[in-house]
Amino acid sequence: MPRTALILVDIQNDYFPGGDWELHKMDPASANAARLLAAARVNGDPVVHIRHENPSSEAPFFRPGTPGAEIHASVAPIEGERVLTKHRPNSFYETGLLELLRDAGVEAATLCGAMSQMCIDATARAAADLGFAVTVVEDACAARAMEFGGVTVPAEQMHAAFMAPLAMSYATVTQTAAHLA
Predict the structure, then answer these.
(1) Which domain holds residue 126?
(2) C-beta separation of 176 from 140 below 8 A
(3) Domain of 57: which CATH number?
(4) How many domains does the chain have?
(5) pLDDT (tens digit, 9 = 90+) per residue, 79-91?
(6) Which ranges does the record mark as transmembrane (predicted)?
(7) Is the pTM of this model over 0.85?
(8) Residue 141 CA, distance from chain mean position
C-alpha cells in the first residue's frame, strides 16, 4: 500500500459561521476532516495542514495576522505536523509541499477542506499531475454559492460540479465513512 499523506486544505476560521467568508456546511465538513485527522494520527500517516493567507490586508477574508486566517480548532495541528502557508489556490505552488511529500516517500494524497471549487480542485489536479494517487473526501469539503453572468449557482451544485470532473479524471472521490472503513 502506498505511503499516504492527509492534506487538510484551508480549514480556517473565516470559512465558519461568523467568519468573513462563510461556506455552506463548513461545520460538518470540518467534523469529517477531524475524523480523517484522528485516523491519520493513529495510523502514523504524514499530516500537512495548508492555510491560505491573502497577501493584502484589504482582502475580503484570510487577511494576514487576523483570527480568521488561523486554522480552525477542530483540526488544530499538533507537534510534528507541518503547517504550510499558501497565497494561491494550488497548495503546491511556492509552498514546498511537493518536496515535503517526496522527502517523506509519499505516493498518495488524501485531500479535505475548502473550498471545493477553488483550492480543493486546484490542489487535487496538481497532485494528480505530479504523479500522486489522489483521494478527495467530498463530505469533508465545503463550497460556497457563486454567481457568474447573472446566474447564481447554489453551494450544493457548485460542490457537485467540481467533484464530478475530479472523480472522472483526477481522483477517487469518496465519503468519510467509506474512506475510514
Answers:
(1) 4-180
(2) yes
(3) 3.40.50.850
(4) 1
(5) 999 999 999 999 9
(6) none
(7) yes
(8) 7
